[in-house]
Structures are given as C-alpha cells and as structure tokens.
Specification:
eight-stranded mixed sheet; 446 residues; 14 strands; single chain; globular; 13% strand; six-stranded parallel sheet; 13 helices
Amino acid sequence: MTTLTLGRNESASTPPKAPGQVAVRRVAVVGQGYVGLPLALRAAGLGHQVIGYDIDEGRACALAAGTSPVEDVSDHHLAGLLSAGAYKPTHLTASLAGFDVAVIAVPTPVAADRTPDLGHVEAAARTLAVHLRPGALVVLESTTYPGTTRRVGRILEAGSGLAAGRDFHLAYSPERIDPGNQVWTLENTPKLVAGIDAASRDAAIGFYRDLVDEVVPVADVETAELAKLLENTTRAVNIALVNELAPFCRDLGVSVWDVVAAAGTKPYGHLAYRPGPGVGGHCLPVDSQYLSWAAGQVSGRRLALVDLACEVNESMPAYVVARLEQALAGRGTALAGAKVLLLGLAYKADTGDVRESPAAAVAALLTAGGAEVWAADPHVPASRRTDPGFAGHRPVTADAETVAAADAVVLLADHAAFDYDLIAENASYVLDCRGRLPLGESVEAL
C-alpha cells in the first residue's frame, strides 16, 4: 500500500497485512457486472464471506449455476469459489443482512435528456440501509459526479436511523476496470480511496489493502469522484481530436494512421490516441457528460470543450455511414438493399462488451437507410446483443464466402480473431475504421 496521500489528508497509519492475515468479514457487493463480479470474487478468494447481490434474477441464477456473464471471469474460477462456499450470488435482499462491508458497483447511465441517472445507485443505497448496522462500512465504486457519495450517505441515514461518520463508515473508491485488459487488472491498478472523514477513509483502506497492490488515499470524496471523471474525460477529449482530424486527413490525401504514428514517436508531451467509429463502454461516452453536467450545476457553466468532444464522438457513426454510402454509390450500388457486413459489435477489440458501442448506432443508421445488415463478432453471443440498435441484423461468421457475398465490409472492432488476409482477399470493398488493413483499391481507411 502506498503511503502517498493527495491533498490535505494525512497518510494512512495502518500497515498492510501479510498474506494469510486477512480479517474475514461478511462482504456484500451490490451489482455483479464488469466491476462488481471481479471485486466480489477477489474478496472471496482472500477468505471473505461474500454475497454477490444483483437485482437481475436471471444473472444471479446463472452465477449460482457457475456461468460467468463477464469475460474477465472464467467459469472455472467462479465454480471454485462457489463450491468453497466463499461466494454466494443472489437476487434476494434478505441475503444482505449482517454485512460488515458493502460495495455499491451498479451502473450510472445517462437519462434520455442526457443528464445523470442515479436511479441504480439510490436504489442500492435504499436496499442496504435496511440492513445497515453500527460499525459497518459502505463504499461507492460507481462512476459519478462530485457529491454523490454524500447523497448516498443521506439515503443510508434516512433508511437506517444511523449517522454516517458517527455510526457507520462511508467511502468512495472509483472503479478502474478495463474489460479485456490483461496487463492492468483489479489487483495491480492503483486504487483511489477517500472517506467522508478520516475514520471512514482508514476503514476503506483496511478493506482494499488486501485486495489490491496499491492503495492511494485521497483528500476527500469529492476529489476522488472528480478524479475518476477527469481520467475518462481526458481520453474522450483526445479521441475526439483525432476523430475530427480523420476527415481532414482524408481531404488532404494523407493517412490519419500515419499521422498518429508519426506524432507518437515523440517521447515527451504527447500521448497517442487513435480515431475510430465512435467511443463506447461506460467510461468515455457517459462519464464526460457527467462531468460537464456537474460543472453546470455548480458554476452555471458547462464545460464547452467536453461538450464539443461528446458531439464529435457521437457524430462518428453517422460519418461512417455517410462514407459507406458514398463509396457504394461510386461502385454503382445504393445503400438501400445493399448487404453490409459489420465486423465487430463490441466497443473495442478482443472483448464482448457492447455497452454504448458505436456499432449499435452504425447498425441502426444502416437499417434506417434500407441496408441489409450482417454482423460478425466472435466475442458477442446472441444473448449479449441486447442494444436496440442491434435489432434486425443477421448474425454471421466472417468466412470467405460471407465476406465475398457482402457489398461492403465495415471494420468496427479489430478483434485478433478476424482473418484480415482473408478479408482483404475476398471483400469487394472495406471501410476500415481501425487502421488494421493495408489500403488499396478495395480498402479505404476512416
């Protein structure tokens, strides 16, 4: 555990425990998705008695049967902890009774009007409040805007009759899960931890120091909440920059990928970001909107640069479809009735995560234009293609026959499982949104 403390907080005084000295506690993790499930199993593997709660009865039952809904968690690993009795998934709120530590790891989406939707967080807090007891620790991990942790505290107080800070501990520790990342995992990614007071912070440090390699205490919960938004908004803004650069490069007659690669050779002052068909996952398209909305609430001024970045990134699916329609027209084919093969429905390579995937918007726009949409993604089974934008597409395999039969192929997620030589040899036209294929008469780049 690092002893670095950011801001005005004092450093944590408790040393890390040696392996085998973990104080066993009853841990409730609310939300068993990309964030909550790995955390729950990590705690269970260390010897804690873990309740994995999810309002989705189907998900809870699948977990109980040993089927993981998260790619980063294998069925084998899940089955081992289930058989040991260390991890118990459930959709029954009564199972939360008696928890020592509760972690809220539920979605924080945006509403139809693009404002933050804290419905899941508030519902989780109300559920936990019924079972809250003196001395317990509640930690919010869901990404959100500054002030949410204290809002959770008020809900917990109202539902339990206990006082945050006096009767129970309350902390914020933003998740830093990157699905599919084999290098930076839950265990080795530094963990920010902040509490509503020093005792809450130290209680949270005492819990997380056994789960991760490095804990970074932060001055207060607002700083930690804002830090998480800044992390992801930084990426969203820089990706928007190269997304805006891509059309200009095409007009100029140069490769945006060559430009990015050349700039990336600078060893200081520059981080290389790459363009694409848009941004997906929770982190980039959602968190930046939380940040700008929060700024507007506090100061009356939204963050213009952040809003513009969101606008640029959200415009990319329409740009992709416009480019495709133009290319088809140049080959004497109308978009209406054309067979368009989408390669990759996930929002990034080598994962099955379709949250906020730009592929959904591309598919929806193509369908609206009358195209016949085919989609190949070895990481996304039919059960995960739940986004309304995917409705009506035809699931296929990217084999030579299918690729050759399509009027156009659009590479949206550059999974390693795709055979790119096969695609280049058999496709009549490819719009490569990821810079993976060599350019030629039948291959154009974004």
